[in-house]
Specification:
By secondary structure, this protein is α+β, with helices and mostly antiparallel strands. The protein has three domains: about 325 residues, Alkaline Phosphatase, subunit A (3-Layer(aba) Sandwich); about 80 residues, Arylsulfatase, C-terminal domain (2-Layer Sandwich); about 110 residues, Galactose-binding domain-like (Jelly Rolls), CATH 2.60.120.260. Helices cover about 25% and strands about 25% of the residues. It is built from 13 helices and 27 strands. The strands form six sheets. It has an eight-stranded mixed sheet, sandwiched between helices. Strands 17, 20, 21, 23, 24 and 26 form a six-stranded antiparallel sheet that branches. α2 crosses α8 and α6 packs parallel to α8.
């Protein structure tokens, strides 16, 4: 009898722990939330209801204007530059040594689950970062999962989609709530939307009739699917009386990519460019530490604990999620382990002070600091000072007018940046594309659209030719488009003199999954022999993937072919060289 009472007491204590749900959207511009009242074409009734039940953080920030670093900071609660995760191309060794929020909560007895885009290493390895359940659907291709759409366990392996990826993540998350309604849970729902490829089903597209750019219609459709998912999940909480027991964050990973000119290029076969979302009225876009690249939709709700109907204007960070979650769950954290702040006393009115003395950022050749309403932004050798109280659009550079403020903020920024790994306010010189962005947004200069070439020279394609398809080159990326649906496309390059063995490296994005292969012809061979072929698998993904292989040849390779799954592909790097060099 005593044992039963003890177990019941433990169950009551466990159930008293608040649930936590973290929604994370992808390339979602500041403008595209109905509650913001910026755009009249956006429809997000469920998100607007969530906002009214809690807090709209009008100065909510991501930690980076790019996917991988922003997600690394979010998951660890530590600025990602402290463990050398500065951009999408960074090695993940530093991140893999960190303790994630999911691990902390799992150790505290929480059921933890991840849904959607991960982008922090192999999907099957997500469980190593504290997640018990994984449903990492982020497109129309197979994905890693150890639960089904209805929340039942299965071995971790590839799972074929049964639903549109945004709907699938929402349904799986709702199923986990149903399954664990009597236990504390942490759900990380990382929607891959409205990030390209813009793939909303027609049923969502039809919600937005009338004249508009097709990429805009597609983004609105994807955001509508996300809104439906938030509605499904919050209604599932309500069904089980969990609304007042659940803290919810809704945050974007960075601003929308506009590519300056918001070109309405075709949705199919062109996953790059503008994603259809908008940052209005903020200046800048994804890839910039300007407001448009960093200030994203940011909502917090915990009915009954955090008063609803609030507009919170003090700056807050995605880093604050981990710190807040650790505080409310009484998880022990070593001093200095987290860079965020517990937001709860600030949102309940217990304290009126701003959560942060200052917010700091570093990404590529850019760095920035915001202290109160003053923001210092650096890009290469350029420097800008803005008073965001009167100039949120960052149109008026006050560095010359207030040099003493710029000097003080620069010193604080440098002190902070020197603590990072590697130290410094910049990681290298500004690339040409970012100079264009700074010229356009911050200098007010006219930047002409880059002209897409219909015929691409051998120099631009690095000597490669396409068979059964066409090549275009832009910004260092080769886009391969099939000529006929269903017909295999391959790349070929002749007149080589490569001594074996040969090291091959291919970095690309593809719209289709399937077998791929590298075939070669040796000096003296009249044709490609079946034995001279190395096969590998490619998975369709909006993320860049790198394949490195060795061609086991001892003679001299004179002709190469790269066979890819049927569909479009973008190739950022294609390199063959003697393996011994």
């Amino acid at each position: 009898m005593k044992l039963l009472v003890f177990l019941l007491a433990l169950a009551v204590v466990a159930h008293a722990q608040p649930n936590i749900i973290l929604f994370y959207t992808d390339d979602h511009g500041h403008a595209d939330l109905g509650i913001h009242g910026v755009m009249k074409d956006i429809k997000t009734p469920n998100l607007d209801a969530l906002a009214r039940s809690g807090v709209v953080a009008t100065n909510g920030y991501s930690t980076a204007p790019q996917c991988v670093p922003s997600r690394g900071g979010l998951m660890t609660g530590k600025f990602q530059g402290r463990f050398n995760l500065d951009n999408n191309g960074s090695a993940l060794d530093g991140f893999n040594r960190q303790t994630t929020l999911a691990t902390r909560l799992q150790n505290a007895g929480y059921v933890t689950a991840q849904f959607g885009k991960w982008h922090l290493g192999p999907q099957p390895a997500i469980t190593r970062h504290g997640f018990k359940h994984v449903f990492s659907q982020h497109g129309a291709q197979k994905f890693a999962a150890n639960i089904t759409l209805d929340g039942k366990d299965r071995p971790m392996s590839d799972l074929a989609p049964e639903a549109y990826h945004l709907d699938g993540c929402s349904r799986a998350a709702a199923s986990i709530i149903e399954r664990y309604k009597d236990q504390p849970f942490f759900l990380y729902v990382a929607f891959r939307g409205p990030h390209t490829p813009l793939d909303a089903p027609q049923s969502y597209m039809d919600r937005f009739p009338g004249e508009m750019p097709e990429r805009r219609r597609a983004a609105l459709a994807m955001l509508s699917a996300i809104d439906d998912g938030v509605g499904l999940i919050t209604s599932t909480l309500k069904k089980h009386g969990l609304t007042g027991k659940t803290l919810i964050f809704f945050i974007g990973d960075n601003g929308a990519p506009l590519k300056i000119h918001k070109v309405d290029s075709p949705l199919k076969g062109d996953p790059g460019g503008w994603d259809g979302s908008l940052n209005t009225p903020l200046n800048g876009e994804k890839g910039m530490l300007a407001e448009g690249g960093m200030s994203t939709p940011y909502l917090i709700a915990w009915p009954g604990t955090i008063p609803g109907g609030q507009t919170y204007e003090h700056p807050v960070s995605a880093l604050d999620v981990a710190a807040t979650a650790a505080a409310i769950t009484k998880v022990q954290v070593k001093r200095g382990d987290l860079d965020g702040v517990n937001l709860l006393p600030h949102l309940t009115g217990e304290t009126k002070a701003a959560p942060h003395d200052a917010l700091y950022w570093r990404w590529s050749a850019q760095s920035a600091i915001r202290e109160g309403n003053w923001k210092l932004l650096r890009g290469g050798e350029r420097e800008y000072l803005y008073d965001l109280a009167t100039d949120r659009e960052e149109k008026h550079n006050l560095a010359a007018k207030h040099p003493e403020i710029a000097t003080r903020l620069r010193a604080k920024l440098k002190t902070w940046a020197d603590e990072l790994n590697p130290p410094g306010m910049a990681l290298g010189p500004m690339a040409a594309v970012w100079n264009d962005y700074f010229d356009h947004y911050l200098e007010g200069k006219t930047v002409a659209p880059r002209v897409e070439k219909m015929k691409t020279s051998a120099a631009e394609t690095r000597g490669w030719e396409a068979r059964n398809g066409t090549f275009t080159a832009k910004d260092g990326v080769l886009t391969l488009t099939p000529e006929k649906s269903g017909k295999a496309v391959f790349l070929t390059r002749a007149q080589l003199k490569l001594p074996g063995p040969v090291a091959a490296k291919l970095t690309l994005q593809t719209d289709a999954s399937g077998p791929a292969a590298i075939a070669w012809r040796m000096d003296g061979d009249k044709d490609f022999l079946p034995a001279n072929r190395v096969a590998f698998e490619i998975k369709a993904s909006p993320d860049w993937q790198t394949h490195e292989l060795t061609l086991p040849v001892s003679g001299r390779v004179i002709h190469l072919r790269v066979h890819l799954p049927t569909g479009s592909a973008r190739i950022r790097e294609i390199e063959f060289k003697p393996a011994s060099r």
